[in-house]
Write a structure and sequence with these properties.
The complex is a heterodimer of chains A (372) and B (432). Chain A is an alpha+beta fold and 372 residues long. Chain A contains 6 helices and 26 strands. In chain A, strands 5-1-7-8-9-6-2-3-4-17-16-15-10 form a 13-stranded antiparallel β-sheet. The chains are: A alpha+beta (372), B alpha+beta (432). Chains A and B meet through loops of A and helix 12, strand 14 and helix 15 of B.
Chain lengths: 372, 432
């Protein structure tokens, strides 16, 4: 194999590959990226056995062929090469080395046989649809903060993507929760998605997916089966196993009878929460919200460290209410709001609170209060 | 010939600080004490400059029993519980027969059938430990006890106070332990905790070993990494996979690679490989975990029986946490299979808990992931990553609306017990 490729293009392709590769793994080949050159394209393939990414890109292929080499090392080398450099990758089959040349730099890297590289079995996808990148980005970016890291409830370690009944008909919906907060994000149901089986997309896949979605004009082809999900642009294909488990019935969690409504500027609110939370170093620090006629007092009381209080003007017309939340959760939820005011709907100090952006019900957040 | 060897070993021309461990005379080199002619002489170039020590009592529990009952003096004595239990301490007579601590009792008795087995008298040992602690308190305020019978001592800055360098005071400490309490101990003296702990084990019993700065690298070179406190069989296995057996193997690794492969332990290994350990001897080392475990009379895989144990252990852990005003983020389940291989599973939660209900439910979920690996001989539950009780269990669970009610019930149970005694109210699952 002998190919020449521009440094920037190579960096992007190898970058995607090396982020899929697990840093700590005991199977040597899994640390490698499989490079395959044919015609005028080169593909870079990496896997951790749960996720596989293939990045295809144009290159000058002088001699077709394939090999595998450490993804992290190759990425580090390419990253350190000067911008605009032309990189030549040459595989001299016999010696088991890959030569990387650019300008006066020359590297010789150990390779492993491509036959040992595990390729993910293909799946029979029961639903295929395409969606604009910004739509998918919104679905996953706005829900991923609520993904649980608790391994005992492994079925919460991802985003539940499924078809649901929204207020105005069928929607494509993403839900994530860790038991303390929940995000439910809806989008118009794309053509072909009607038969989509509900799947839990793992946290790591959601992170990798983000990189496919940065081009606003791109259209993403999505394929889903009971066990796998695939997202593809013309260049990059990301295939992932889904979490084998049942996502809990989240609909029971979303309060419907909350009537006490507070409307507040989300940015001001987030900044005030952040400020008062400074006095406590506890990781799960509680912020108390005291509500009265158009007035909100935020306070934190850390017995060992000190206390803080801040007053905010809000729209609130219900009875007095005192309720506590984990400061971090409040901040995360408030930072999801980017266009209108944040609307909080409370019931009482012990029941879940609902938050949405203005009157928009296509993005709804639920947060569990803390005893303060 | 003999004389020739000795001349080679001890170059009389170079003065080397020396100390007699019997009469505490200090002098410059010699195989015997110039004042009392004792051969128990310590000499080392850094003898009077090293300051971090580890004191470890010799077969502590067994020694206490022998001291209290001189008839046992020449007999093999094993401290440990029951036929199903393990050896907690074996006296040196029993050790000659191959008995080791943590060995299953049946195996120990096979090796040493005439051993006198004594059930541990925890509170008595604790009282004796206090007497030793009092002697150590005279030396330095920086004492970090690791258990009843061992402690780190940082003697930095005490030389002017005592008028003697640390080595002399430490030799006096073990001498006083023997003279006044009838118990012997071994000292390791070095420049950090890691090496001091290794040193105390080099020359047991009644030992005094020194690892100086100058010979640290040479000392560690061919030693196995399992010497590191905290590297047990499991860690050893994963190190083996990486081809790391000795400290020399470890030195070949880049810091970053170690970190990538072993996480925070990798960072520590990198420093330890160089004989570096910056941990302080801390008098008030905060409690790190609360745990309880139980060994069964018979190995069991019965999910009902095991579940009952999980609940009782969770409740014990919660009770202790509540008593100490503490709570933990990490819940751990520990198991031992019938063949004594250990197994543990842990999970970290976003907030602190001291609730028996939550500890139990988390432990149960952890146990479920390994339940089919039974039968088991031991089960344990613990919490760690501790924090203050204020703010613990203050968040409800969206997916488990009953959790808040159960927590209220637990509070009520606690107050009933506080008033009417521990047996006043029990959960059904506690009597399985």
């Amino acid at each position: 194999m002998k190919i020449s490729i521009e440094r920037g293009t190579l960096l992007k392709a190898v970058g995607q590959a090396q982020s899929v590769v697990e840093r700590r793994n005991t199977i040597p080949i899994l640390a490698n990226v499989l490079i395959e050159a044919e015609g005028d394209t080169v593909s870079f393939r990496a896997t951790d056995l749960d996720i596989e990414v293939v990045d295809k890109t144009n290159a000058m292929v002088e001699r077709a062929g394939s090999t595998t080499v450490s993804a992290v090392t190759l990425h580090e080398i390419v990253r350190k090469l000067p911008d605009g450099a032309l990189v030549q990758l040459t595989d001299d089959g016999a010696a088991g080395r890959l030569t990387v040349e650019a300008g006066r730099s020359n590297f010789s890297l150990a390779t492993l046989p491509k036959e040992d590289f595990p390729v993910m079995a293909s799946s029979d996808y029961s639903a295929n649809f395409s969606a604009p990148a910004p739509v998918l980005r919104r679905l996953f970016d706005k829900s991923k903060f609520a993904i649980s890291t608790e391994e005992t409830r492994y079925y919460l370690n991802g985003v539940y993507m499924h078809v649901a009944d929204g207020e105005d008909g069928r929607v494509l919906r993403c839900v994530a929760t860790d038991g303390h907060r929940l995000a439910r994000i809806d989008a118009d149901l794309p053509m072909g998605a009607e038969e989509l089986p509900g799947v839990i997309v793992p946290r790591k896949t959601v992170g990798e997916l983000h990189k496919l979605l940065d081009d606003d004009d791109a259209t993403i082809a999505v394929s889903v089966s009971e066990t796998k999900v695939r997202f593809a642009t013309p260049e990059i294909t990301l295939t992932s196993k889904v979490i084998d488990g049942t996502f809990p019935d989240y609909t029971r969690v979303i309060p419907v009878g909350n009537t006490r409504k507070m409307e507040v500027d989300a940015t001001e609110f987030a900044q005030a929460v952040d400020r008062v939370a400074t006095v406590s170093s506890e990781r799960s620090r509680a912020v108390k919200l005291a509500l009265d006629e158009d007035r909100l007092v935020l306070s934190v009381n850390a017995p060992d460290a000190g206390a803080a209080e801040e007053e905010l003007a809000v729209a609130y017309g219900d009875e007095r209410l005192e309720i506590g939340f984990n400061a971090k959760y409040l901040l995360e939820i408030a930072s999801q709001v980017d266009r209108e005011n944040a609307v909080f709907l409370f019931n009482n100090s012990g029941d879940p609170t609902l938050m949405r952006e203005g009157g928009d019900t296509s993005a709804v957040y639920v947060v569990m209060p803390m005893r303060v | 010939m003999l004389l020739f060897v000795h001349l080679l070993c001890i170059p009389y021309s170079v003065p080397m600080p020396a100390l007699c461990r019997d009469c505490l005379t200090t002098f410059e080199a010699g195989r015997r004490c110039p004042s009392c002619r004792s051969p128990r002489v310590l000499s080392h170039p850094e003898l009077f400059t090293l300051k971090v020590a580890h004191m470890d009592c010799d077969a502590f529990y067994a020694s206490v029993e022998k001291r209290d009952n001189p008839e046992l003096m020449d007999k093999p004595v094993i401290i440990g519980g029951g036929k199903r239990g393990v050896v907690s301490t074996a006296c040196y007579v029993a050790r000659i027969r191959g008995v080791r601590s943590a060995m299953p009792m049946f195996q120990a008795l096979k090796l040493c059938p005439d051993a006198v087995v004594i059930k541990p008298r925890g509170s008595h040992y604790a009282a004796v430990s206090k007497q030793i602690r009092a002697l150590m308190d005279e030396l330095t305020p920086a004492i970090e006890p690791l258990s009843l019978d061992e402690a780190f001592l940082d003697m930095t800055g005490t030389e002017r106070l005592h008028g003697h360098p640390p080595a002399v005071m430490l030799a006096r400490l073990v001498k006083r332990m023997e003279d006044e309490l009838g118990l012997s101990g071994s000292i390791g003296l070095s420049h950090n905790k890691f090496l001091a702990k290794i040193a105390s084990d080099l020359d047991k019993p009644r030992g005094f070993s020194i690892i100086g700065k100058a010979e640290t690298a040479a000392f560690l070179r061919d030693k196995p990494v399992r010497l590191i406190w905290g590297v047990g069989p499991a860690a050893q296995a994963s190190l083996d996979k990486a081809g790391i057996r000795t400290f020399t193997d470890l030195l070949r690794w880049e810091k970053r690679d170690l970190h990538d492969r072993f996480g925070s332990m990798g960072d520590r290994l990198w420093h330890l490989a160089r004989g570096e350990d910056s941990r302080r001897v801390s008098a008030h080392a905060p409690m790190k975990s609360i745990s309880n475990e139980t060994t069964f009379f018979e190995d069991t895989a019965d999910p009902d029986i095991l579940d009952g144990h999980l609940w009782r252990l969770s409740e014990k852990v919660a009770d202790r946490a509540k008593a100490k005003g503490s709570a933990g983020r990490v819940v751990t389940v520990k198991l031992k299979r019938a063949n004594h291989s250990a197994l543990s599973r842990r999970v970290s939660q976003p907030d602190l808990t001291q609730s028996a209900d939550r500890i139990y439910r988390t432990a149960r979920a952890l146990f479920a992931t390994v339940a089919d690996e039974g039968p088991f001989r031991l089960i344990g539950v613990g919490i760690s990553d501790l924090g203050p009780a204020e703010g613990a269990d203050s968040a409800g669970d969206l997916l488990d609306p009953q959790a808040t009610k159960r927590r209220a019930a637990e509070k009520a149970t606690d107050s009933i017990r506080a008033r009417f005694g521990d047996g006043a109210i029990l959960k059904g699952r506690a009597i399985r």
